[in-house]
Automatic annotation (TrEMBL):
Organism: Ammonicoccus fulvus
Biased composition (Basic residues): 423-434
One Pfam entry name: DEDD_Tnp_IS110
Region ranges (Disordered): 414-464
Polar residues: compositionally biased ranges: 444-464
Name of this protein: IS110 family transposase
């Protein structure tokens, strides 16, 4: 006897559950909340003699499903998940013109019979896992800080180019501390070189000294000369710059704290450093791969892991024709981004990856497309190492073990991409785009306006 409980999860309203026995509905539309009394009442209504015979099917909805899944898993039930896209397609087949929570829960209860291969066993805590959650939070903060830097660049440009020449464009702690207090050129000149030097030495730990202070005073003097006495309200501009600089300082401190937590969590997750042993994988990328993949054994195969990254191509096959278009992008976007960064760095260390990159580029392939292929190869190797608990072995194309320095030397000698060949590919692609644009221009309606000059000559002879 197979019991299946389909639960349509909600976030702010009550969930709905449907129980099926061997595909036949026992009861449907039972509402409950994520509260201990409601869950205990639902468990009593199931009347399950053996909890291992119960399969709970859940469609992931934000993070509301994790608490319910953990509750049933602790009771001994088997918890499986179904991708939202597959459940939506099956719902259209089951009920084309109606969608409600009762139908959704009944569909989920029948899914083990309708589409058993589409179910995924629930293992681990998913978004509740600390490392998985933390690497995503770090990525969000880094992107937010990049946006703040862009706005800060735009505001500092109003002061003149000399400020960027002295402060730089990477905006370290000393530069941000300075902009948060002394972005007004009048305040910089009033401060004086001696006090400004002491301020910079304290904030930069001695890296910036009297020469930087003199450069900032010269930049402030140049700004006043460029704008004149009444050209700009520098006090208001300094307030705007201070707001952006303080945001950047706050985000920088938060990212530093997160990096320390990520390092500790990664050490607990991967104590032998299996992921970090891969070429091109640093502390940040290794933590992202380990956190976003989680347990590699939860995937049925290496192909499933590749599909999870979204780096596999879309396939359209009919008869003897088969078309592979762009990648699906259906997986984890953060994992996909980090894998592409790791692949771009690994092609400069691993001769096997560099040889494949050279073959791809020799076939007139775009650099980004080649990197996607290399990222797929990278995740396959890293996942294999995680499954077998063995570190990544760097080898030459003939299988000889080598070091990273030897790998760089081999790549520089054999697999260095030819700049002229890449330029030829780039120019050929640009010519094809111009030709395509010209063809589209020629297919426009004759009455449409064109970029050609108007013909002012008469088209017919006038009769007096």
């Amino acid at each position: 006897m197979a019991l299946t409980l389909g639960i349509d999860m909600a976030v702010r309203t009550a969930h709905q559950a449907t129980l099926a026995r061997d595909g036949v509905t026992v009861w449907r539309g039972r509402k409950f909340w994520t509260r201990p009394p409601d869950l205990e009442r639902l468990w009593a209504d199931l009347e399950v003699p053996d909890p291992s015979e119960l399969t709970v099917v859940i469609e992931p909805t934000r993070n509301a499903w994790i608490v319910v899944a953990e509750w049933f898993r602790r009771r001994g039930a088997r918890v499986v998940m179904v991708p939202t896209t597959q459940s939506a397609d099956l719902r259209k087949y089951y009920s084309k013109h109606t969608k409600n929570d009762r139908i959704d829960s009944e569909l989920l209860a029948r899914l083990p019979l309708l589409h058993p291969e589409g179910l995924r066993e629930y293992s681990g805590q998913g978004p509740a896992d600390a490392l998985r959650r933390l690497v995503k939070q770090r990525s969000t903060m880094v992107k937010r800080r990049v946006a703040v830097y862009a706005r800060l660049d735009a505001l500092v440009e109003l002061l003149g180019p000399s400020w960027h020449a002295v402060l730089g464009s990477n905006y370290g702690i000393a530069a941000l501390e300075f902009l948060a207090r002394y972005a007004d050129p009048n305040a910089v000149i009033r401060l004086g070189q001696a006090r400004l030097s002491r301020f910079l030495i304290a904030r930069s730990r001695g890296a910036w000294r009297e020469d930087h202070a003199a450069g900032l005073i010269a930049a402030a003097t140049e700004t006043l000369t460029l704008w004149g006495h009444e050209g700009m309200d520098f006090a208001e501009l300094a307030v705007d710059i201070a707001h952006e600089a303080e945001q950047a300082l706050f985000l920088t401190r938060q990212i530093k704290q997160i990096d320390e937590r990520v390092a500790n969590l990664y050490a607990d997750t991967d104590p032998h450093g299996i992921v970090a042993s891969a070429p091109g994988v640093g502390p940040v990328i290794s933590a992202v791969i380990a956190g976003r993949i989680g347990d590699p054994h939860r995937f049925t195969s290496l192909a499933a892991i590749r599909a999870y990254t979204g780096l596999v191509p879309k396939v359209s096959q009919s008869g003897v024709s088969k078309v592979e278009s762009s990648i699906t992008k259906a997986g984890d976007p953060l994992l996909r981004e980090m894998l592409c960064m790791a692949a771009d760095a690994a092609r400069k260390i691993d001769p096997q990856i560099a040889a494949k990159y050279q073959r791809l580029m020799a076939g007139d392939r775009h650099h980004d497309s080649a990197i996607c292929h290399l990222a797929t190869l990278m995740i396959t190797r890293i996942a294999t190492c995680m499954r077998t608990n063995q570190p990544y072995a760097l080898r030459d194309v003939d299988g000889t073990p080598i070091t990273e320095d030897e790998g760089r030397a081999i790549i520089k000698q054999r697999y260095q991409p030819q700049p002229r060949h890449r330029d030829n590919i780039r120019h050929k692609r640009m010519r094809d785009r111009r030709k395509q644009a010209a063809d589209e221009e020629s297919q426009k309606s004759p009455s449409a306006p064109t970029s050609q000059p108007a013909n002012t000559q008469p088209t017919s002879t006038q009769v007096a």
